[in-house]
Design a protein that fits this description.
This protein is α+β, with helices and mostly antiparallel strands. The protein has a domain of about 100 residues: Serine Threonine Protein Phosphatase 5, Tetratricopeptide repeat (Alpha Horseshoe). Helices cover about 15% and strands about 50% of the residues. The protein contains eight helices and 32 strands. The strands form three sheets. The protein has a 22-stranded antiparallel beta barrel. Strands 1, 2, 3, 4, 5, 6, 7 and 8 form an eight-stranded antiparallel β-sheet that branches. Strands 24-25 form a two-stranded antiparallel sheet.
């Protein structure tokens, strides 16, 4: 009876979700410009010992730094979006945590006020680490939250005493740092080893086993000394604490090979025996224990409605004619709605999901029906998987993996697990689907085609790892066609490393058809007890080289324009109009006290110019392309030679204060200086975020900016803003924000003054 009821409930829920999706599809009209959605989705991935929160963006996001370092209930991650206009103001986006039994509920807010970063607010404090990871575009930020208990908890044997060591330093007024102190020239190795052992004992007492492993490893890396023996034993104890019984067993066996006699050997043999017994018991228990019966259904997601408004006043003074003109207009009046619904049914080892995501924007100021009411179906897919065996997903789904360039595609993805938790084989095929993030988006943009099979892709890739608990990677092949012509054919690989506070990500993408390197990137960060170091080196084609790039700027171009007759012409044009970009960035964030962190970064980036090319013109009444012989003087031609940007240097300093100026308040100050051949700019951003209890958050920030370009045109801008979030009835959130932007522009012939008032308010419902 219960089973029948569950089946009926499942059919009802799935049917309701599908009906909602179909109704939404009916409302889809020809796409137009809309507020860009930069934040895509949130996923929770369970791995041994941690639960990973994957925050995925619809644009390339580069990790800069985060605060606090590894523990807290509010995490602020500072990001940069090199492919987007940094001067634009991103629309406020919220995302709530999917249901999880592993970690507390949380909410993600983007952007995080005066920065282009994000904040993650948990119901209670957690221990975590932050890294960046993804295929191709570096658009995935990963928050690895340490579980309260290891997946396979292993209690330390109480009857075995820790080896004696030097007495730890007495605790002062603040908590002792567990960071490994540097070894300086002239220091006594014996004393340094004793200090490390004492520090490691302190970490064990605090149950910070990962720190203990780092400390004892540092002690073992010293030249042999009287503390090496104890350090070898204690690193086994630390490995036990992390729940890694295989490594603990290896450490104890290594100890007995070096030190087979003595009191320590007796203790280690006792520990080794218990570890071996426990490992055997766990293996036998897994073999004998019947699979856990699961019969669970959940529906969760969110729905929100926001209104955005804005008015501006402009005063233009003509210095030559000595005249003044005033303008006043309403520049924004828009309603935006969105929903994100997941229906999930789990039956033993099988997992089924139906996911629907969409947005609708109604622009009350639009003069065209095409641009007034805009709907986006961002996801509609069904997923079926069997634990450690296979996965099948069909429908409109997230892309950005396995060499797929677009952030969503209509198609199928099949994954087969050849070796559980080590080797996955993936096959995927479909049509890319892209919604433009640019303000000058037009409906006939060839990148936003209809479902007509003129552009499709297929590919395969393998996921490998973890190898040695730290390394993992992916290798892929992708072939994308358009009208029978190769659009993109590439191979690529990525390599990831994550261990002991160090995270690194490398990516290479090579187009075998064009014989060009699309991307070579290395991104890494190192988080110590009090300091975070960040390094990024990035070289890429922008955008990725594809045959369809040749249609950019070609009037009335469609995918039908691409055919075998003009393939050579199109490929040459695509190479001519595709630029390359280079970016190098190094940053650091250091905790100078319990509540204050200071940091900054230096970066240099440049985008190459494009060579002069003839405009492509479509022969009237046909799909035939030919070269415009008057391209050099033809003003409407948008593909004239474009100069490069030259080196753009940016220097940023940052100060982050907790409990300043009041308790439960976070203060952030950013100062930047930018210099390039075209302009020089300075900015200062001040942000204060106050949490007034568990439900109310109040933010204030102000941005000051000054710029002077190569034509001696000066710009001054000040933008104060306030925002309030109020959560009520546990699952509802009211949010409102308002601000003023004052801009002054002064040149030798004209002086402009603009005041813009902007605001938004809305409500959000998170359900599960």
């Amino acid at each position: 009876m219960l089973r029948e009821i569950s089946i009926i409930r499942l059919r009802y829920v799935m049917g309701s979700v599908l009906l909602g999706a179909l109704l939404f599809l009916v409302t889809l009209i020809e796409p137009g410009s809309a507020v860009a959605q930069v934040l895509d989705r949130i996923e929770i991935v369970e791995t041994p010992g941690v639960a990973e929160i994957h925050i995925i963006f619809n644009a390339r996001a580069l990790y800069l730094r985060h605060t606090p370092s590894d523990k807290g209930d509010l995490i602020r991650v500072f990001l940069d979006f090199p492919d987007l206009d940094r001067s634009r103001r991103f629309a406020r986006e919220l995302a709530s945590s999917p249901p999880s039994d592993l970690i507390p509920k949380f909410q993600v807010t983007f952007p995080d006020q005066a920065t282009n970063g994000l904040s993650i607010k948990f119901e209670r404090p957690v221990r975590f680490r932050v890294s960046q990871r993804d295929i191709r575009s570096s658009s995935r930020i990963v928050i690895a939250v340490k579980l309260d208990k290891p997946v396979m908890p292993l209690a330390l044997p109480p009857e075995v005493k820790a080896p004696p060591t030097s007495k730890p330093p007495a605790a002062g007024g603040s908590a002792q740092s567990l960071d490994v102190p540097p070894f300086k020239q002239g220091m006594d190795i014996e004393q340094y080893g004793a200090d490390l052992l004492a520090l490691g004992r302190t970490a064990l007492t605090a149950e910070d086993y990962e720190k203990a492993v780092l400390i004892f490893n540092a002690a073992l890396n010293l030249p042999p000394n009287t503390r090496s023996r104890d350090a070898q034993e204690m690193i086994g104890v630390a490995r036990e604490g992390t729940g890694d019984i295989d490594k603990a067993k290896a450490e104890y066996e290594h100890y007995l090979k070096i030190y087979p006699d003595g009191e320590g050997a007796v203790r280690v043999r006792q520990r080794l025996a218990k570890v071996a017994d426990l490992k055997s018991a766990i293996a036998q228990g897994k073999a004998k224990k019947p699979a856990k019966k699961i019969d669970e259904m959940r529906v969760y997601g969110s729905v929100y409605e926001y209104y955005y408004g804005g008015n501006s006043q402009t005063k233009i003074t003509d210095k030559v004619a000595n005249s003044t003109t005033n303008f006043r207009n309403q520049d924004q009046s828009m309603l935006q709605s969105a929903f994100d619904v997941t229906g999930r049914y789990r039956k033993d080892e099988y997992d089924n999901k139906l996911v629907v995501r969409g947005t609708q924007t109604y622009d009350l100021l639009a003069t065209s029906d095409v641009r007034r009411n805009i709907s986006r179906l961002r996801a509609l897919y069904y997923e079926h998987s069997s634990q450690d065996s296979y996965l099948v997903r069909v429908g409109r789904q997230p892309g950005n993996s396995g060499g797929v360039l677009d952030f969503r595609f209509d198609g199928a993805w099949v994954r087969y697990t050849a070796v559980p938790q080590f080797l996955n084989i993936n096959l995927l095929a479909g049509q890319p689907r892209q919604f433009s993030l640019t303000s000058n988006y037009v409906p006939d943009d060839p990148r936003n085609f209809r479902a007509d099979l003129k552009r499709y892709f297929y590919g395969a890739n393998v996921d490998i790892g973890p190898i040695g608990q730290a390394w993992s990677g992916n290798a892929y092949f992708i072939n994308q066609m358009v009208n029978g012509i190769v659009d993109r054919r590439a191979v690529g690989t990525e390599l990831r490393y994550a261990a002991n506070g160090k995270n690194a990500f490398g990516l290479v993408d090579y187009d075998v058809s064009y014989k060009v390197l699309n991307v070579a990137m290395l991104n890494g960060n190192w988080v110590t007890e009090g300091t975070t170091y960040t390094l990024l080196a990035d070289h890429r084609r922008t955008p990725y080289l594809q045959t369809t790039n040749s249609l950019f700027g070609t009037p009335n171009a469609t995918l039908e324009t691409i055919n075998a007759t003009n393939e050579s012409l199109l490929r040459d044009q695509a190479k001519a109009v595709t630029a390359t970009s280079d970016l190098l960035m190094a940053g650091v964030l250091h905790a100078v006290s319990k509540d204050w962190q200071l940091g900054g970064d230096v970066r240099v980036n440049r985008i190459s110019g494009t060579s002069a090319t003839n405009c492509l013109v479509i022969l009237p009444g046909t799909s035939t392309l030919f070269l415009n012989p008057n391209a050099i003087s033809d003003a409407p031609c948008s593909l004239q030679a474009q100069p490069g940007t030259g080196n753009i240097w940016s220097y940023t300093a940052q100060a982050i204060g907790a409990n300043f100026p009041f308790e439960n308040t976070t203060f952030v100050a950013n100062a930047s200086y930018i210099t390039s051949p075209a302009y020089r700019g300075q900015s200062l951003a001040l942000n204060s975020m106050a949490r007034l209890g568990p439900r109310l958050q109040f933010d204030t920030f102000v941005i000051l900016y000054h710029q002077k370009d190569s034509f001696d045109v000066e710009l001054y801008r000040v933008t104060p803003t306030i925002r309030i979030d109020y959560r009520f009835l546990d699952s509802w959130t009211f949010e409102a924000s308002g601000g003023v932007e004052k801009t002054l522009t002064d040149s030798t012939t004209q002086k402009d003054s603009t005041t813009r008032e902007f605001f938004f308010f809305g409500i959000r419902w998170d359900f599960s």
